[in-house]
Amino acid sequence: MDFWGFIRRRKTFFIxxxxxxxxxxxxxxxxxxxRFSSSALIQxxxxxxxxxxQAIQASQSIQDAPHLVKSASLLEECTPVFRELVTFxxxxxRGQDGEVTFDEKAAVRRAAGTISVxxxxxxxxTISVEGAIREDTEKIANVVADVYTDYHKDTFQSxxxxxxxxxxQASETLDIKLxxxxxxxxxxxxxxxxxxxxxxxxxxxxxxxxxSKISGIALQExxxxxxxxxxxxxxxxxxxxxxxxxxxxRYSNQNAHEINRTVDESVLNTRTMFGQLFPLxxxxxxxxxxxxxxxxxxxxxxxxIQLTRRHFEVLAGLQPEENAADEETDPxxxxxxIYVSSLEHELAxxxxxxxxxxxxxxxxxxxxxxxxxxxxxxxxxxxKIANLEMIFxxxxxxxxxxxxxxxxxxxxxxxxxxxxxxxxxxYPKLSQFLTYGALLGALIGAAIGYVVESxxxxxxxxxxxxxxFGLPILAHVPFMQEQKLRKVxxxxxxxxxxxxxxxPRSRPSEAYRxxxxxxxxxxxxxxxxxxxxxxxxxxxxxxxxxxxxxxxLAQSGKNTVIIESDFRRPKVHKLxxxxxxxxxxxxxxxxxxxADTIQDTEVPGLSVIPCGKRPRDPSELLxxxxxxxxxxxxxxxxxxxxxxxxxxxxxxxPCSVAPRADGVLLCVRLSRHSRDFGGRAIEQLGDVGANIxxxxxxxxxxxxxxxxxxxxxxxxxxxxxxxxxxxxxxGAKSEAYFEDSxxxxxxxxxxxxxxxxxxEK
Length: 761
Fold this sequence. Notes:
CATH architecture of the largest domain: 3-Layer(aba) Sandwich
Number of domains: 4
Distance between the termini: 60 Å
Radius of gyration: 67 Å
């Protein structure tokens, strides 16, 4: 839907119903009761405590104010003032005993309904009272503001004391709870806990120490096993010297501090004796290389070695003392075997020691697990005490931060900044009622206009006409404005509606020239020399189109003639200002020559053949061969022949002329009936084989003539009656009208035939 086109076309509905709505709004305005409003401004200030506490208290007061001001407990204190106001006078009643009573509860409810509270900032309130009595609104607002400020001061002082007491009470309670928790912890630690004073599990510490020793012994076992494997591999050679050299390399770097003190004394003595035997063996080897086998020094050293070895074997328990002297072995092999035996013995001792330590570690682990419950209990006591200490410290900090001097006089916390003045009128407002009424009326007008728009089948765009009729639009002719037509002198022979001659620079003249261009330069321009101009209904402007088209053709240098073929309502002679004494009818009757009927006009190159005496049988004359012969003669004589015929839907005359013309130009005036009338006219012309050259849309707004906007139309009332004037259909009156009468009478612009008394005779 074209919204702006809809607004422009249906603006009457908007304006009319908006005016009606504004009137209804004004009527309602006069019936409303006046309402007045008065306001008091209150500031809430908190002077005590730190800045953070002040902000919290002020914000809380602002949030509570709307509920507090309208509460029954506060408004009940205002009832002494309410008794004196006109607003509450109907709440007085007289009992059976003659006593006058005042309904305070009803007064409180009524006052609460008139009060509104609004927060302007974080510390300023506005208390407004609205009512029908201007003076009462001022008094109610002031008394409520005074009572609220007093109530706020007292309440705040009480709140301070209560808050301070709550903090002290909370501090005492927390102190008691903390002392109780510490006492319970100490009693449990003393009587039930098996942990140390520091809260350590002793069995867990012992278990960790034993595990450390076991790890050390396991490392020693690994080292000794590696030594045994190396000595066993070295001892496989023949003289055992590789093992001996291995021992020499090991014990040359032996550190006495590396000896494990957990090994028994036999192992320690064995190592000591080996340390004494080894130097003797080394000395023996050196002397054997220097001296002979029987050298005294060599024999002496060998005796020392043998004695030392025997002593070592006895000490180590390898053989009895009595058998030691009988054996003779290889010294190097004996040393290696002895050292291997000592290592095996040492390894066995380490394994026994590790086994004992593992047993002890398992025992300590069991005891440590048994004390795990005590550890959890201790941690719970410690967390409880820590939480109580933290809460106690927090409460103590709040007490120190607030520093509430409750023993000092109270400072004001609420003050009235602006007292209420005489109430101002807030309702009703004339502008508001008029605006709402006009807006509502405009909406109703829009709804009605939409219904009318939906039911309106008139054309709004050129595309709709082309789509509906399937014909091209040759021109859009705007309205001929009356103020422009008045510029034409009435003394001119040509009628004022021949605007192409009188006002050639106007937009309608340009539209007629557009139609002329379309006729002359279209694909069939050479063949369209005899052009019939007609319209669907009366009042569409077909005669005006015919004469202006003829003028534009003549102005372009074309020899043009316009022939009147509307024998029922001839107008060409009036539009051109020529005589109607002799015309087409006389030529067709054979009473005049064609040359005698052709008349020149003010426009060079334009000739006119008027109607002449109007016949009683117009349809029959138009269907005669003489009429077709007349058109052929005119075709040879003139370049363009314009035929003005009646409307198609009024009489059948145009359908008789259409087959004889080269082309038919259909003039359509925009109206609500254009769609139906135009379709029917095109259908009738098509039935007789007419060649419709195109449409000329008449009666378009000047803005639309060039911009092709939304079409508008004037409200023409089309009537079929009046165009035939009651003749030509067998009536007695029509038979005596034309050729036997000297006066042909005249037609008014509404289409009604004016016949003189003499004509009727």
